[in-house]
Design brief:
The structure is a homodimer of 203-residue chains. Chain A is mainly α. Chain A has one domain: Hypothetical protein af1432 (Orthogonal Bundle). Helices cover 68% and strands 4% of the residues of chain A. Chain A contains 10 helices and 2 strands. A two-stranded antiparallel sheet of chain A has the order 1-2. In chain A, β1 and β2 form a beta hairpin. In chain A, α7 runs antiparallel to α9. The interface between A and B is large, with 54 and 54 residues. Bound molecules: calcium ion. Calcium ion binds next to loops of chain A.
Chain lengths: 203, 203
């Protein structure tokens, strides 16, 4: 505290935190549970951290929950530069590749704002989430996928209507990944959503 | 997994997570950094978790950062029933007491939705935050107070204009508490905001 060096570390940190504020402006495809508006990526990140904590017992593999929470806290920051890519949006391989490059550049820029001793370990956690290979990352990805399903169920269809999604498509794009990290959660959630897909002729 | 008992725990958890979604509807006094709209308590909670992590080095006392993040993840949930009380709003002792009772009832209801083995430790973490006695809680409270200051500075005054706040009032209501948990942060932030208070005749 009080040295010039500390002061410049603090300045860098406050600049990063000011940038992070912009994640509240990134709109997602999902609506809130009450259907009143679209969700943004900052409040989504908060919500799925709570999901991860509350649902940790249902993980397929033993977890380091603190690490999962760190992953989810950081996971969408790159959207400040790269935007959110809706899971049910049309994605061709070239566009996917361009998006991945944009997200890498965003991670370079954003984590690069921090003192290196802090930004580099954070970047490593984001890389681990993206790679989706460790048990923590697989569970974190499951949680990221299942929360919008619960919102759609609450608000009467949400992005399933907007993107004209049927149950086999949802199984392929969402269910398969939720199942990897939290199979019991997917079994139960699938039972809850099936009536909606049946009633709307989307089985 | 798969037993009736597990299934009912999962049902309780999903109900709690559906309720938690409503925190996104609670509007705070602060505007976002770009001044485009008011902040909500869910995205605020996300932002201050990032603040806590990034600023942990500046804590007055040694921390359990994982516990601080858990505190901040939960700390505003009671606002779903009790609403947000703006720090610069007029508060008489009777209203404060009524609000505290409303928040206690909200904590009973919300954490009571979870299986007891999970809801009770979460409630204990919320109680610890409210009591503001442990080092983790004191730091968490500091962080909760300093983030709106940074937003106001970004958006040109924000709630300081709306509530007609001068610098001595800010020192009493905010600075004193930030100083308890993160004195170096308050010194630096105070230097950054003083010009605004000087220029607007609010010293
Ligand atoms: Ca995303």
């Amino acid at each position: 505290e009080g040295t010039g060096f500390d002061c410049s570390r603090l300045t860098a940190r406050l600049l990063f935190l000011n940038e992070a504020d912009k994640l509240k402006l990134i709109t997602r495809a999902s609506m809130l549970g009450d259907g009143s508006r679209h969700e943004n990526s900052a409040e989504h990140s908060w919500h799925i951290m709570l999901y991860a904590w509350v649902l940790a017992e249902h993980s397929a593999a033993p977890l380091d929950l603190d690490r999962v929470l760190q992953m989810l806290l950081l996971h969408d920051l790159v959207e400040i530069d790269a935007g959110d890519a809706p899971i049910h949006g049309v994605i061709d391989p070239a566009a996917l590749e361009a998006l991945a490059a944009k997200e890498e550049a965003a991670a370079d820029r954003l984590f690069g704002l921090l003192p290196a001793g802090q930004g580099m370990p954070m970047r490593a956690i984001w890389d681990e989430f993206e790679a989706a290979e460790t048990a923590d990352a697989v569970f974190a990805k499951s949680i990221d996928r299942v929360q919008p399903v619960m919102l759609n169920l609450l608000n009467g269809g949400g992005s399933w209507v907007d993107y004209d999604v049927n149950l086999p498509q949802l199984e392929a794009r969402v269910g398969k990944k939720v199942n990897l990290g939290a199979p019991g959660v997917w079994r139960s959630v699938r039972d809850r959503i099936e009536p909606w897909f049946r009633e709307t002729g989307r089985l």
